[in-house]
Design goal:
The protein is built from seven helices and seven strands. The chain is an alpha/beta fold. The longest helix has 20 residues.
Length: about 190
């Protein structure tokens, strides 16, 4: 997360459980939370990592994680990072039936397509510079129109004050993975 450009504006620090701040660990060994991240809103992400191949991830696989993370007020966001080919229908329903909870699934496909230098991680070296491209003229025009349209919308619904110019979407908009959809949280 700390190297993925799509998370850099949202997360400022990431720790393995054993290295997380003591206020979170409270002397406990592994509680089902594998990683902890500090969100830009000041709350923490509880993150569970699962490496499964050939079978769906079920709610039973992550029950201890959710029991501990949801019971701790330090956590405002929850992530399952997994390599399973899919999740069971019951687990999918659980994630979708709780829109009040910021539950994100970071699946293998999303990780594969992240703008990261995976070879550097495998070689345990530092990641090289992120590869970027300048937009083509028609793309630059589309981006400009989208930003202008978004600013008008955000101003109209009260998420942006008139005259300000956001560098990125308002923090109220959060991306959530469960067949990728957007929701407004405020």
């Amino acid at each position: 997360m700390s190297n993925d450009p799509s998370w850099l504006e949202r997360v400022s620090r990431v720790w393995l459980w054993d290295d997380a701040p003591e206020e979170l660990r409270q002397g406990h060994a592994d509680t089902g939370i594998d990683l902890v991240a500090l969100d830009d809103d000041g709350s923490y992400w509880a993150i569970q990592a699962k490496c499964y191949k050939g079978r769906k991830l079920s709610e039973r696989d992550v029950s201890t994680f959710f029991m501990n993370a949801l019971g701790d007020d330090h956590y405002g966001h929850y992530m399952i990072a997994d390599t399973a080919p899919a999740v069971t229908k019951t687990f999918e329903n659980y994630m979708n039936d709780h829109p009040d909870r910021d539950i994100v699934r970071l699946d293998l496909d999303t990780m594969r397509h992240a703008n990261l230098d995976w070879d550097a991680f495998e070689a345990e070296s530092h990641s090289g510079a992120r590869r970027t491209h300048d937009p083509r003229p028609h793309q630059a025009e589309a981006i400009s129109r989208l930003v202008a349209s978004s600013v008008r919308l955000w101003t109209r619904v009260g998420l942006l004050e008139r005259g300000s110019s956001p560098a990125s979407p308002p923090a109220a908009y959060r991306r959530r993975r469960a067949d990728t959809h957007w929701r407004l949280t405020r």
